[in-house]
Write the structure tokens for this entry.
Amino acid sequence: MTCSFTLYRLDYTRAAPWACFEIMDTVFPTDDNSSAIVHRPVIVKTQDLSKTYRTGFWLNQQVASLRSCSLEIYQGETFGLLGPNGAGKTTLLKLLLGIIRPSSGSAQLLNQPAGDQSIKQHIGYLPENPYFYDYLTGWEFLTYSAGLFDIPASIYKERIPTLLDMVGLSRQAAIKKQLRQYSKGMLQRIGMAQALINDPDIIFLDEPMSGLDPTGRYQVREVILSLKDQGKTIFFNSHVLADVEVICDRIAVLNQGELICQGSLHDLLGTPDAYFVKGQGGSLDVLKKWIDNLTFEGGYWQGYLHGNPHDFMGSVHLMNGRLITLDLRRLSLEEFFIDQINQQQTIATKN
Ligand SMILES: Nc1ncnc2c1ncn2[C@@H]1O[C@H](COP(=O)(O)OP(=O)(O)OP(=O)(O)O)[C@@H](O)[C@H]1O
Ligand SMILES: [Mg+2]
């Protein structure tokens, strides 16, 4: 038992710098191009992936962290995984990276089983709570990380300053300060640089904006966008929905271990030319045909129009109704997210 754990640990430590942090930690866009994206090769694929942790002194309690998760991520896309605290986002990331093993189901990266040694060189990972060797300076830490990937000195000596500039960390601080003297935001930045040290094709980022000030958030957003321009595949978890809305091609929402929806922002939030309508009177049957999420409040009806606004206005006129508002707008990601979580909670309460 101990022997296999040690091998496992060494194996991963050798292959990728982030793995050692995580094993200790766990103890054991516009959406116009989204339809083009789904024709690209699948880079990450999970099928009915599930993880149940055993907890308690006798390991007799179970926590179902992920239930039957099936998703596909395509080459070059930026995929955002959203979900409330404890939804299972980090668990899914760890399963994809092969840091923890699934209880059932399967996961593949680059057509290889998750965790396969042959694909480690192509993967970058920023863990949620990275364990840093805090007596190292930032520069030493990046050099150490480069060594784990066997990157020649001639390459990493050029790459480290470029990465530091990219994540907005001063070279001075990287050379002089030990990591234990870094602020949370500085650690996040050095973690991001570490995730990119091997120039990976697929990058997994667990809460990359966490702990960053507005400038830092902006910089990370720019880094992700520039990686996207370079054709990298990016998978990230975030609670900062405004950023997700700008960066991602597709998203998925995870709640209590279940994927409750996935798709492009366009598919999920509606077309950018969605109209919010509000009015009075008319026929309920006719309104239902035109309006999604139809609700009534204070004698007014309201919701989202599907169909041609001119035809709708004609229809309202014919049924002797009165149109008060016709606003061009679609749901924000935040509204959509809250709505999805609330809907699932309502279903769970009813059951
Ligand atoms: N090593 C573990 N042992 C037991 N339970 C665990 C372990 N790791 C995670 N869990 C449980 O699994 C569930 C999902 O946790 P996870 O960390 O994946 O959530 P998350 O969506 O990443 O949350 P957050 O947004 O807070 O980071 C939680 O109920 C958590 O308590
Ligand atoms: Mg997490």
Summary: Residues 89-90, 128, 206 surround magnesium ion (ligand 2) (CB under 6 Å). The chain is about 40% helix and 25% strand. Residues 2-259 form a domain with the Rossmann fold fold (CATH 3.40.50.300).
